[in-house]
Amino acid sequence: MNAAPQLTCPACQARLEKVSDQQLACSGCGAAYPIVSGRPVLLREGNPLFRISDYVDAKPKDYKRTGLSSYLPSITADLAVRRVASALAKRLDARGPSIVVIVGGGCQREWLTPIICADTAHTVIYTDIDTAADVEIFCDAHDLPFETNGVDAIITTAVLEHVMYPERVAGEITRVLKTGGLLYSEIPFMQQVHEGAYDFTRYTLSGHRRLFNGFSEIEAGMTAGPGSALAWSIESYARAFFRSSKMRQIVTGLCRIFSGLLKYTDRLLEKNPAAMDGACGTFFFGQKSDKLRSDEDIIAAYTGGRHLSHS
């Protein structure tokens, strides 16, 4: 089994030392971080949005849908994550046991770990800022608590739209990955707000490539297509007519039953370049490089139906 990565202070990036079963201490600045139910809370002091005290009673939430909601289909297709996660795992298998960090792990452990560890027992570490997440470490993705060049792969799905400064998070991901390390990232594009006040940003595929221009591209494309995007729009439009949470839930259920069928058209459009311009979300699968990808190359790599030239 591969050793766990060295944890570092989110404030100064010096190494953390275990003082007791309840605390870690920074070897540099001396900051102390609690361990809650075996899970370190690695948030720098003065974090304006998240306080260490919020995690004292943190417990994983059961995200499984129950009752009527368990019978409702998702309105979003899955064209990439399981397939590409498997491809990422096979590349890691060729290298031997590796360290994989899930940034924004939420409740993905049940289905994601079996894919990553199908053939090799990689060390998979789930991180999140959500107090209800099923993770090994609580941390802010703006300050990843891992040593520079210490991680073999990072997976982050539907996370970067929820952070205040995506470029800073992308920089942290790049920092902690080894040269040659692997990244799978997916971000929504044509998709409505889905996490209230913590929903900030959307990216085209070109923007996604630009965000991770320190990586050589292995594959990139849509996570879900225009069919899923249309289903999201219909649901958002229908919900807009109601203020009552109960009525909005009823409308959501009806939309999931009928509009949810639109996601199946994404399979028909998956290989159509023009569909990329209206994709529900995009993914980027790449390998950390020792040089930046040029803006000219990113523009030349555009996949879509509206080729324009400003030269």
Describe the protein's architecture and organization.
The protein is an alpha/beta fold and 311 residues long. The protein has two domains: 16-55, no CATH class; 68-300, Rossmann fold (3-Layer(aba) Sandwich), CATH 3.40.50.150. The protein has eight helices and eleven strands. The protein has helices at residues 81-93, 109-116, 166-176, 205-211, 226-239, 245-258, 266-269, 295-300, and strands at 16-20, 23-26, 32-36, 39-42, 99-103, 123-128, 137-139, 151-157, 177-188, 215-224, 281-288. The protein has an eleven-stranded mixed β-sheet, sandwiched between helices. Strand 1 (16-20) and strand 2 (23-26) form a beta hairpin. Helix 5 runs antiparallel to helix 6 (245-258). The longest helix has 14 residues, at 226-239.
Keywords:
311 residues; 11 strands; 11-stranded mixed beta sheet; single chain; globular; 8 helices; alpha/beta; Rossmann fold
Itemize the secondary structure elements and their pairings:
Blueprint: E1 16-20, E2 23-26, E3 32-36, E4 39-42, H1 81-93, E5 99-103, H2 109-116, E6 123-128, E7 137-139, E8 151-157, H3 166-176, E9 177-188, H4 205-211, E10 215-224, H5 226-239, H6 245-258, H7 266-269, E11 281-288, H8 295-300
Parallel strand pairs: 4-7, 5-6, 5-8, 6-7, 8-9
Antiparallel strand pairs: 1-2, 2-3, 3-4, 9-11, 10-11
